[in-house]
Design a protein that fits this description.
The complex is a heterodimer of chains A (503) and B (157). Chain A is mainly α. Chain A folds into 2 domains: 394 residues, no CATH class; 36 residues. Chain A contains 22 helices and 2 strands. In chain A, helix 7 packs across helix 8 and helix 14 packs across helix 20. The termini of chain A are far apart. Chain B is mainly alpha-helical and 157 residues long. In chain B, helix 1 runs antiparallel to helix 2 and helix 4 packs antiparallel against helix 5. The longest helix of chain B is centred in the first third of the chain and has 23 residues. Chain B is flat and about 60 Å long. The termini of chain B are far apart.
Chain lengths: 503, 157
């Protein structure tokens, strides 16, 4: 392991990769601060532009955006009560209250330090867990891969949204979109409706930029949330440093949040958002003074902020070792790998150890950069928030249009991004989450390949998925997770019935 | 809200039906096993079933929130103007050229829609055209379409 880390640092500490790491984390922080674009849309825009870079530099930059966003989202949550990112929603609850009490600087400071500690723990987790997990994954065949993908997709739809049915619907739409074009095996045209434009399928760029970038701009223009305005917060370095008591109160939440976030990041549908919510719920549950939550307690910031950062680290494990993304951002990073001709998965450690360890070690460096950027440069990031939406909205749209064109220099992709922008806007209006769509679109072709291979092996019998022990275990666990709330509901009703009859 | 779910369920049901008939033109299964039509066929059926469940679920749940279906929010007019400008941008981008389209787009948005001053409009537009050209065309070597300005840009070269 030590040799691998040395190899990784020798790659990530080159001037070129340090530069791209800095660009990534800075962009990530800016994107986290600005409402509207999000890491998914930003990575989608940068995807075609990273073709000119070598694969390691490209992934380092894109990964930097992903974990940088979590840092940036905290700033607007604390100062404006508006989450810059979904993973920072929970921070609004106590963080903004701390700002109102004149402790906004401390909230930002503890969030930055907690995030750094949590990310470091998360990255150590990747370093330890990834190699043995990759070895296990080598024994996976098409049956196990298909089972893992369908379980992952199902759990993501279940965990990511209020309405499971609507999320499943979006996932199926994503599968269908992934079918458009020529079948890779037989070359038959699928869902092209006789048009040349759809023969090559739909590029991920216009789809992602449309549903995340343009849709967000349309929502922003049409009527975003009311903003309370800034809470004026001193941004000098001294005001950002937590006191000894703050550290004492935060140590437990940071530790618990780090481990909770990391393990949640590994599972499908986990990641930063779920980690932050569960961490807040946990801290409130075990606190001696739960009534203080919501009034500006530092535990309510330290725990969730740590969890959402270690969650982003955990999300890299299934991507790098299994080649499976369990959220939208890692799905786009997977696309970035594939565009460069590298397939992440169990073979990456043997075929491309330089890429794997280069990316992992760059996360250590990126988190140091984020801590250095966030503490003294908070004032600069706050000023970015002063850009009015009427300047921001057309510029974000412009980035999406050019980013779409840059995919394959095809002007039709610009029209496609507008089309998906309206589709994404309507999806939000009708309470459909676009995340399962994008995930299913990326995973769909891999899933279809694995499924077809598995059914060919079994001469068309679907029972092979239950005959193979790994596949059966994965599917059973997924089914159990989906059924648990139903059992819980039925049990609660049963208990309620018992109490009534007991009266 | 019930109306939203009925509408969206119906829309997906129609899409599923179209896709189902399309997928029937493909080979679903052959001697080797599932063929190119297998996943499209199964997905279209799944989509149809899920859309029906959405509508049934809407029928069964109690009405909550607003009863009137409102898609557009308070800034309806701005939304329509922005949306229209996006569509026109996509249509004329390659014919008119990147820089001119961008200029027209930003002037329309900033001056006509957002009613900013001419000074601010021109400053933002000029900076956006110049910096985006430098970034995309020069730094990233993206061959942005020159459109109707191509005789001028070629003469300048």
């Amino acid at each position: 392991m030590f040799d691998n880390l040395l190899l990784g640092f020798s790659i990530s500490l080159t001037i070129e990769n340090l530069f791209y790491s800095l660009i990534g984390v800075t962009l990530g922080t800016v994107v986290g601060v600005l409402p509207g674009l999000g890491p998914g849309g930003t990575i989608a825009i940068l995807l075609p532009l990273t073709i000119k870079l070598n694969v390691t530099s490209a992934i380092i930059m894109l990964s930097g955006i992903y974990y940088g966003v979590a840092y940036g989202g905290t700033i607007t949550s604390v100062l404006m009560n508006v989450p810059g990112e979904v993973s920072s929603v929970v921070t609004c609850i106590d963080g903004h209250q701390m700002a109102k009490k004149g402790r906004g600087g401390v909230a930002l400071g503890i969030a930055a330090f907690g995030s750094f500690i949590a990310s470091t723990i998360g990255i150590i987790g990747i370093t330890i867990m990834a190699p043995p997990l990759a070895k296990v994954a080598l024994s996976f065949g098409p049956v196990e891969n298909a089972a893992l993908m369908v379980s992952g997709l199902t759990l993501v739809t279940y965990l990511s949204s209020k309405s499971v049915i609507k999320s499943l619907t979006m996932a199926v739409v994503g599968l269908i979109l992934g079918c458009i074009g020529l079948d890779p095996v037989t070359g038959a045209e699928r869902f092209t409706f006789g048009t040349l434009m759809l023969l090559d399928g739909i590029n991920i760029g216009p789809l992602a930029m449309g549903v995340y970038g343009v849709a967000e701009v349309l929502s922003m223009v049409e009527g975003g949330p009311e903003q309370e305005g800034f809470v004026k917060t001193p941004v000098k370095l001294k005001s950002l440093l937590p006191t000894r008591k703050d550290w004492k109160d935060s140590a437990g939440p940071i530790g618990r949040g780090s481990f909770l976030g990391f393990f949640l990041g590994i599972i499908p549908g986990g990641g930063a958002v779920l980690s932050s919510f569960l961490s807040y719920a946990l801290e409130k549950k075990i606190s001696k003074h739960p009534e203080r939550f919501g009034t500006g307690t530092i535990e309510g910031v330290a725990g969730p902020e740590s969890a959402n950062n270690s969650g982003t680290a955990g999300a890299f494990i299934p991507l790098l070792t299994l080649g499976l993304p369990f959220n939208v951002v890692t799905a786009l990073i997977l696309v970035a790998f594939m565009v460069h001709g590298v397939t992440p998965g169990p073979f990456i450690l043997t075929k491309h150890p330089d890429i794997f360890w280069g990316v992992v070690t760059s996360m250590y460096i990126g988190n140091v950069m984020l801590l250095i950027l966030n503490i003294p440069l908070i004032g600069l990031f706050i000023n970015i928030l002063r850009i009015p939406y009427h300047t921001l909205a057309p510029l974000i749209a412009l980035l999406c249009f050019v980013g779409a064109f840059a995919q394959s220099y095809n002007a039709m992709d610009v029209l496609l991004v507008v089309f998906f922008g309206f589709a994404g806007y309507l999806a939000r209006k009708f309470d459909y989450d676009p995340a399962p769509l994008l995930l299913a679109y990326v995973v769909g072709p891999m899933f279809e390949r694995a499924l077809r291979q598995a059914l060919i092996i079994s001469d068309g019998s679907p029972w092979i998925f239950l005959e193979k022990p790994i596949s059966a275990s994965i599917l059973s666990l997924a089914a159990l997770s989906l059924m648990l709330p139903l059992f819980k509901k039925a049990y609660t009703r049963f208990l309620g019935g018992q109490k009534q009859s007991g009266k | 809200m019930k109306k939203k779910d009925y509408l969206s369920g119906l829309a997906f049901l129609i899409i599923a039906s179209i896709l189902f008939f399309q997928s029937r033109q493909l080979m679903v299964w052959d001697d080797m096993g599932p063929s190119e039509g297998f996943l499209p066929f199964v997905s279209s059926i799944l989509l149809g079933v899920l859309s029906l469940i959405v509508m049934i679920h809407a029928y069964l749940k109690p009405e909550e929130g607003e009863k009137t279906l409102r898609i557009l929010g308070p800034r309806k007019k701005k939304f329509i103007l922005y949306g229209t400008s996006f569509i026109i941008y996509g249509l004329i981008f390659s014919k008119v050229g990147y820089s001119l389209t961008l200029g027209l787009f930003l002037v329309f948005i900033l001056k006509v829609v957002e009613k900013r001053s001419w000074r601010m409009t021109f400053v933002v537009t000029a900076i956006a055209i110049f910096s985006s050209y430098l970034l995309f065309a020069k730094a990233f070597s993206i061959p942005l379409p020159e459109g109707i300005l191509s005789p001028i840009t070629q003469a300048l070269r």
